[in-house]
Amino acid sequence: MIMRIAVLGASGRTGGALVDKALERGHEVVALVRTPAKVTVSASRQVEVRKADVTDPQGFPDLTDVDVTVSAIGIGKGDGPGALVAGARVLAEAGVRTVWLGALGSGVSSRSGGLIYAGVMRMFVGSELAEKVEADRIALDAGATVFHAPDVTDGPLSPTRHIVPLADLRRPLLPPRISRATLASLLLDEAETGRHGTGIVVPLS
Fold first, then answer.
1. For residue 77, what pLDDT is reported?
2. Which of 68, 146, 164, 174 measures 20 to 30 Å from 199, CA to CA?
3. Is the pLDDT of residue 42 over 70?
4. CB-based burial of residue 59 (10 Å sphere; 0-12 exposed, 13-18 middle, 19+ buried)?
5. How many CB atoms lie within 10 A of CB 91?
6. Other CB atoms within 10 A of residue 57 CB
7. Cα separation of 137 and 134, whole Å?
8. What beta strand segments (E) does 95-154 contain?
9. What one-character DSSP code corresponds to residue 68?
C-alpha cells in the first residue's frame, strides 16, 4: 500500500537514507527540514519539501495529510540544548502516528547494549542523555514507537535485519552496531505496518 510518509530531519544522513528507501518502495515523501535547500534528490523523484523548524512550533507545517511521520533528527553541531525535546513535542501535538529514532544506551536501555557500550555512551553522549530520555518520554506519551538504535555505521543492508522489543533484547558482549541502510529500512518497516505499537524497540542486523 502506498503511503504518504513525512520524514523529520530529511537532510541528515539517516533522514536522507529514509527518503531514498521510502521512494524506492513507492511511497509519497514529505521532507521536513529546517533548511529546504539541503534536501537533494534526483529530479525524477518527487519529494515535497516543507520548511520545519522544531524550535518554532507556531510555524511548524500541518501534517494532517500524512499517514505517518518518521523522525530522524539528532543533536547537530551548533544546536543548542532542547532540539530533540522540541521535535518530540511538535510531533506529539501534530496528532499523526510517529516512529521516533532514539538511542540504545539512554534511559531504560542504559545497560541493554552491554557494559562496554554503556561506558562509550557515557563518555561520548553523556551530556545529551538526559535530553534523549525526555524526548523519548514525550514521544511515548503521544503513542509513538521509539527505536533505540545502536551505533550507526556505513554499510550494506543486512539480510538478517529485525526488530525486537527492548524487553526481549539479549545483552551483547560487544558493542552493537547497525548500518544506516538497515536502520532506515527497519524504521520504514515499522512506519508501514505499525506492528509494535507504542513502546521501545531495538533494530538489529
1. 53
2. 174
3. no
4. exposed
5. 29
6. 12
7. 5
8. 98-103, 145-149, 151-153
9. E
Read off the amino acid at residue 180.
Answer: R
Question: What is the amino acid identity at position 115?
Answer: L
CB count within 10 Å of CB 139 equals: 27
Question: Amino acid letter at 47?
Answer: V
- The three cell numbers of residue 197 are 505499537
- Per-residue pLDDT tens for 110-136? 989 988 888 878 877 766 888 999 999
Cα 41 to Cα 11: distance, rounded to the nearest angstrom = 10
C-alpha cell at 127: 551530556
Strand-pair partners of 133: none
DSSP 59: G
pLDDT class of 189 with cuts at 50, 70, 90: very high
Quote the pTM value: 0.93
- Kindly report, residue by residue over 154-188, the tens digit of the pLDDT: 999 999 999 999 999 998 888 899 999 999 999 99
Q: Which amino acid is at 45?
A: R
Q: Is 55 helix (H, G, I), strand (E, B) or coil?
A: coil
User: SS3 of 85, please?
Assistant: helix
In this prediction, residue 81 carries a pLDDT of 66
Buried b / exposed e across 93-116, counting CB within 10 Å, b at 16+? Answer: ebebbbbbbbbbbbbebbebbbee
Residue that is written with C-alpha cell 518520554 in the block: 137
* 22 SS3 class: helix
